[in-house]
Design a protein that fits this description.
The protein has nine helices and 18 strands. The strands form three sheets. Strands 1, 2, 8, 9, 10, 11, 17 and 18 form an eight-stranded mixed beta sheet that branches. Strands 5-6-4-13-14-15-12-16 form an eight-stranded mixed beta sheet, with helices on both faces. Strands 3-7 form a two-stranded antiparallel sheet. Strand 10 and strand 11 form a beta hairpin. Helix 2 runs parallel beside helix 9 and helix 3 packs across helix 9. It is globular.
Length: 422
C-alpha cells in the first residue's frame, strides 16, 4: 500500500494520480477467524486495528451489513472533547482525546482533527459554579479547562446573542481548547486502511442473520455471505446491538434505540471558529462550521424509540429555534439537508465495554451522544478486553452488572431514563 507523504502527493500529481494503490481490500469471508467484529463503523474498525497493532492478533474480520461508515459513523456532528466528570468516563475520554491528537500521524491518514475548542455557554451563576467544579476536576486529572467571563467570550465569539433580555442570557462559558472536530468519513477510512494494512479482513455487505451457540459460547455466525466460524465475537453495532443481542438468545439489554438528527446549512464564509454548545430550560443545541463552510448542528434526540435514519419537521423547528436564539445572524441561512442516526441509549447515559453471559462474546454498546469522540479509546479498550479476556481498570465498572452493584455513571444526573441523557 502506498504510504502518504509530501513526496508521493507531488509525484502522483505529476503522473495524473495513477500511482495510488487501493486503500483497503474488499475481502471474501474465510471459513474461520480468531476474532470477528460485527459492525464496520469507527468503533469496530478501531477495535480490529488495535487488536492487530497492540496485541498481535492476525486472523481478524470486520463484518458490516452495508458499507463502511454507512451507519452512525457518517451521521454525526463530529465533535471531539473530554470534558467528562464521572470516574471512569473522565479517564476514558481524556485517553481518547490524546489518541485523537496523534491519530493522523499514527494512521498515516488525515482525519482532519481541528482543535478549535469546545465552548459551553453558561446562563446563570449556578451554572458557572457547576461548570467550575467539573472543570477543576478536569485540571486536577491532567486535562485542560477554562472558565471564560463575558468580556473574553465577546472577544472570541462576538456574534452570539449577548442581549440581557435574550431568551437565554449568556453569562460566561466553560471552555476546553484541545477539543474540536474531525471529519467522520476520513476517520473511518483511516482506520479501515490501517487495519487492512495489518491483515484485517474487511467484509462489506455482509449482514449477520443468525448466531449459532453451543455450550455457553458462540461457535459461528450465519451471514448473508455464508457461515463464518469464530473463536471470539465482538458486537460493535450501535443502535442495532439489541437486534444482535436477541439473535444470540440473550434477552433484553438495558439500552433503547433512539434517533438523533443532525443538520447542515448552505456553505458560508468563515463565521464560527469554535464548537458552541448550550443547554438550558429544556433546550439543547450544539453547532460548528465545517471546512466546506456549512454550519453543522443538532439538538435533542427524538423521545420515541426508532431505528429510522431520517429526519422529521418537529426537530427541525426545535433546532432552528435554538440556533436563532443564540445566533440571530442565522435567521436567513438556508438548511441544506438533515438526517438521523440510531443511538443506543443506556439507562445512565454511559457506555458498556464488557464481557457477556456467553464465554466468547464481548459487548461495546450504549454510547448515547458520546460514540464519535470515543472512537479511538473505545477501540483501544475493547481490543484489550477481547485479547486479554478481562477489562482494564478504566472500564471495570462499564459493564452490564453495574446497576446491580448500585453504580450509575451518570454525567447528566438525569436518572435511569435513556430519553433524558442527551
Amino acid at each position: 500500500m502506498t504510504r502518504f507523504s509530501a513526496w508521493n502527493v507531488i509525484k502522483n500529481g505529476l503522473s495524473n494520480q495513477k500511482g495510488w494503490d487501493r486503500q483497503w481490500q474488499d475481502c471474501e469471508p474465510k471459513d474461520q477467524y480468531d476474532v470477528v467484529i460485527v459492525g464496520g463503523g469507527i468503533h469496530g474498525l478501531a477495535t480490529a486495528y488495535y487488536l492487530a497493532k497492540n496485541h498481535g492478533i492476525k486472523n481478524i474480520a470486520v463484518v458490516e451489513k452495508g458499507w463502511l461508515g454507512g451507519g452512525n459513523a457518517g451521521r454525526n456532528t463530529t465533535i471531539v472533547r473530554s470534558n467528562y466528570f464521572q470516574p471512569g468516563n473522565r479517564q476514558f475520554y481524556e485517553h481518547s482525546l490524546k489518541l485523537w491528537e496523534n491519530l493522523s500521524h499514527e494512521l498515516n491518514y488525515n482525519v482532519m482533527f481541528s482543535q478549535r475548542g469546545h465552548v459551553s455557554l453558561l446562563h446563570s451563576p449556578s451554572a458557572i459554579d457547576t461548570a467550575a467544579r467539573r472543570y477543576n476536576t478536569m485540571r486536577l486529572t491532567g486535562s485542560d479547562a477554562e472558565i471564560w467571563g463575558l468580556k473574553k467570550l465577546k472577544q472570541k465569539i462576538p456574534h452570539l446573542n449577548y442581549n440581557v433580555n435574550a431568551r437565554f442570557p449568556i453569562m460566561g462559558a466553560a471552555v476546553q481548547k484541545r477539543a474540536g472536530t474531525a471529519r467522520h468519513d476520513a476517520v473511518v477510512w483511516g482506520f479501515a486502511r490501517a487495519a487492512d494494512q495489518r491483515g484485517v479482513n474487511i467484509i462489506q455487505n455482509c449482514e449477520v442473520i443468525g448466531i449459532k451457540r453451543d455450550k455457553g459460547k458462540i461457535i459461528g455466525l450465519e451471514t448473508s455471505r455464508g457461515f463464518i466460524n469464530c473463536k471470539k465475537v465482538g458486537f460493535s453495532a450501535a443502535g442495532n446491538t439489541t437486534l444482535l443481542w436477541n439473535m444470540a438468545g440473550l434477552g433484553e439489554l438495558p439500552i433503547e434505540s433512539h434517533k438523533l438528527q443532525a443538520f447542515v446549512t448552505e456553505p458560508l464564509k468563515p463565521l464560527l471558529d469554535h464548537v458552541v454548545v448550550f443547554g438550558v430550560g429544556g433546550a439543547h443545541f450544539y453547532i460548528s462550521q465545517s471546512d466546506k463552510g456549512g454550519l453543522v448542528f443538532g439538538g435533542d434526540l427524538d423521545s420515541y424509540k426508532s431505528y429510522a435514519q431520517r429526519g422529521n419537521l418537529p426537530i427541525v423547528q426545535d433546532v432552528a429555534e435554538c440556533a436563532t436564539s443564540i445566533l440571530p445572524c442565522l435567521g436567513r441561512v438556508r438548511l441544506l439537508r438533515h438526517w438521523s442516526g440510531t443511538c443506543d441509549m443506556s439507562m445512565d447515559g454511559s457506555h458498556f465495554i464488557c464481557k457477556t453471559p456467553l464465554k466468547n462474546l464481548y459487548l461495546n454498546a450504549g454510547w448515547n451522544y458520546g460514540g464519535f469522540k470515543a472512537g479511538p479509546s473505545a477501540g483501544w479498550y475493547f481490543a484489550d478486553l477481547i485479547a486479554n479476556d478481562r477489562p482494564d481498570g478504566v472500564i471495570a465498572n462499564h459493564d452490564l452488572k453495574r446497576f446491580e452493584r448500585g453504580i450509575n455513571i451518570d454525567e447528566r444526573g438525569a436518572g435511569p431514563d435513556p430519553k433524558l441523557h442527551g
